[in-house]
Amino acid sequence: MHRFFVMPNQVNLTSGEIVIHDEDVKHISKVLRLKEKDIVEICDGESKEYICSIASIHKNEVVLSIEEERKSTQEASVEVVLYQGVPKGAKMDLIIQKTTELGIKEIIPVMMERTVVQFDSPKDEVKKVERWQKIAEEAAKQSKRGMIPKIHLPMSFKDAIEDSRKNALNIMPYENEENRGFKNIIKNLSKEDQASIKKIGVWIGPEGGFEESEVVKAIENGIHPVTLGPRILRTETAGFTMLSLVMYELGDLGGA
């Protein structure tokens, strides 16, 4: 069943209709070639889903009739925020796509000491983030997410540290940390403390990793360095790996 996201205000429970505009209209009519009475799945991005039949297709809108309303069960109980050192080329596209599939809640691009990529202007930043947000939306549709991860505008390392204070726990895979892994951190928490962890920040460096001064600053602000084993992972691999570990230990990856 094809899945589409809408804003909550597009859902009219009084009339029992949802009206779709913009690019999804073309996708429904021209690309997927769906017809009236075909069934689609709609998500409002706030964990509510609607099974709908297509009532009518017009040039600029598609009108859907709500057949069933239900709560989305695709989102994990733990929210994970990725603080990603901005990498070169298309690596960020891959990071956004795959972490969205795994259940990421937010992605914050961070300008770190070893970040090579530079944005020409604030307008360039906005344009890039809009593109990244679109990648997240497409990945969310494909993986049947209940919401679309938010891609933030790039932050400085200092601002990202400040933002991370909202998280219950922050972890930073670091090649010079040889003994303590994420599992070890969780094992040393009581069951009550584990249950209270609802939001985790995952910090990943760009190509070349973190500067030592950044690691010191992170530790001073309560961020825990952890090992991912004896092998050095690329920046585009480390985030997937860390997110998988978090979701396995505290989320819903692997089932009950």
Automatic annotation (TrEMBL):
GO terms for biological process: rRNA base methylation. InterPro entries: Alpha/beta_knot_MTases, PUA-like_sf, RsmE, RsmE_MTase_dom, RsmE_PUA-like, tRNA_m1G_MTases_N. Keywords: Cytoplasm, Methyltransferase, rRNA processing, S-adenosyl-L-methionine, Transferase. It comes from the Bacteria. The keyword Methyltransferase applies. GO terms for molecular function: rRNA (uridine-N3-)-methyltransferase activity. Its main location: cytoplasm. This is Ribosomal RNA small subunit methyltransferase E.
